[in-house]
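Encode chain A's predicted structure.
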Amino acid sequence: MNLLKAEISKTLIEIKTYYPDHIVDVIIKYFLFLAFFLGFGTRNIGNDSFLIGYSFWIIASYIISEASVQLSYEKQIGTIEQLFIKPYSSSTILLVRSLLMFTVSLVKFALLAIVIFLTMRISVSLPLPVLVVFFASIFGFLGLGIFLSALTLIFTKTASFESVISYALLVLSGVIVPFGNIPSAVNKIMYSFPYFYGIGLAQKLGALQEVKILEWVFLFLLNFAAFALSLFFYELCLKYVRRRGMLNKY
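Encoded structure for chain A:
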């Protein structure tokens, strides 16, 4: 509880101090939406599928970048060791920070959605089960963020590739190229990853297609497995850098 209070206080201070950055970020995401929606969305896929892919990308990009970027920054300024002498495990701290970032990203996405619907005439009708898919996919997002954090412990500059990974996810999220137009072999590989499987299932629900019970089961298993494996990988990387005294090397 003390950790949560401390991280909430830290997050609120950062938002208050750097609020122009958040405003600019929402504006950039709005113009990206306009560019992709007017240039690609109405030609290739329906409004519902487009919004599902775009919303998944926004939330995922925020979550997967937060932990790795912070770790990279703390290694750069030489304060990362303080993260490992606290009474909480570093993985717990990263999880709390990522969940808070998820909350902030939801607020920013809500503001973006309000601006979009106020300035554009978009007809959207999404069934409630789409939200279930979205929240189940959060564990997959967190898993990817923890995985990148683990790599950051060893290679430090992994965070530099975060934007590349983020925009690669955008291209493959069905926003530009519908999943139906992607070669079946590539599609099968993509669907083994929680991010793409969640988008595909949500778009299927948005199109009012039947979703089987096994598909729901696989959604939860895939996301929880990705989350658990990422935590395990993080602990392995942490032991590796501690054994070799690499924590404070930048």
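Residues 2-243 form one domain.
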